[in-house]
Specification:
11 helices; mainly alpha; single chain
Length: 236
């Protein structure tokens, strides 16, 4: 039992040495440039069996992405194929929030997939699945995640967590996550005309003139704008 507990803790805590390794391996300019976790993460235990997870990712981009067009599908799918969710806490939190919003919006879809694979006993109710996704996302983020270097994907994660809460009629959690999304967007300076490569900067303390206009990350720029308008239209 102690060894299992230590292994469970290692899922959500990465040391500084692993962070340096991640950046030195060429991920410094990747959208998914968060610290890595230990290898051997059991995604079946964190979310659902991998065979079901693959189907749910496809369902998300079929049903949710057309009305909430983020994250960038080719970039996300590349990271998913590389199994970034097994070693990157930001990617894992984003994935869990995306699946949670899908299950909350279309509760029958995961049940159909589970039944087809003979795994219907995995989740007695769809709400149990949503709760597991929420727990995985919040655990992957860890305490004090707002004190770290934020990226637009933190805002996207908060949005999908809020969306899942809205579809399950948890209005208190909905208001908290949507407010957090707006706060992250403002902190990252989505209103600025230019976006530096790799993200929206580290917040309002960044000097306005410090951005190199030749290194605009158009993907994250568009994600920020789409997220803002989804929030504006959705709240109103």
């Amino acid at each position: 039992m102690p060894s299992q507990a230590r292994r469970h803790d290692s899922i959500y805590h990465a040391g500084a040495a692993r962070t340096d390794t991640a950046y030195s391996n060429g991920y410094a300019h990747s959208p998914w440039n968060a610290p890595y976790y230990d290898h051997g993460v059991n995604i079946d235990r964190l979310l659902c069996p991998s065979v079901i997870l693959d189907l749910l990712v496809d369902d998300f981009f079929m049903y949710i992405h057309p009305v909430a067009p983020f994250p960038h599908e080719p970039t996300f799918r590349q990271g998913y194929r590389e199994q970034r969710h097994l070693k990157d806490h930001q990617f894992l939190a984003l994935l869990a929030s995306m699946i949670g919003s899908l299950v909350a919006s279309f509760p029958r879809k995961p049940q159909e997939h589970l039944k087809a694979k003979g795994l219907q006993a995995e989740f007695a109710k769809s709400l149990d699945f949503v709760n597991r996704c929420h727990k995985t996302a919040t655990d992957a983020r860890g305490p004090g995640y707002l004190d770290n270097n934020l990226s637009i994907y933190d805002g996207v994660t908060s949005y999908f967590l809020g969306l899942a809460a809205a579809y399950t009629f948890d209005w208190r959690r909905t208001r908290l996550y949507f407010s957090e999304t707006l706060g992250i967007l403002r902190t990252l300076g989505v209103h600025r005309a230019y976006v530096p490569h790799g993200g929206f900067g580290t917040g309002a303390s960044d000097p306005v003139g410090s951005v190199d206009h030749t290194e605009i990350d158009y993907i994250q720029q568009q994600i920020g704008r789409r997220l803002f308008w989804c929030m504006l239209v959705g709240v109103r």
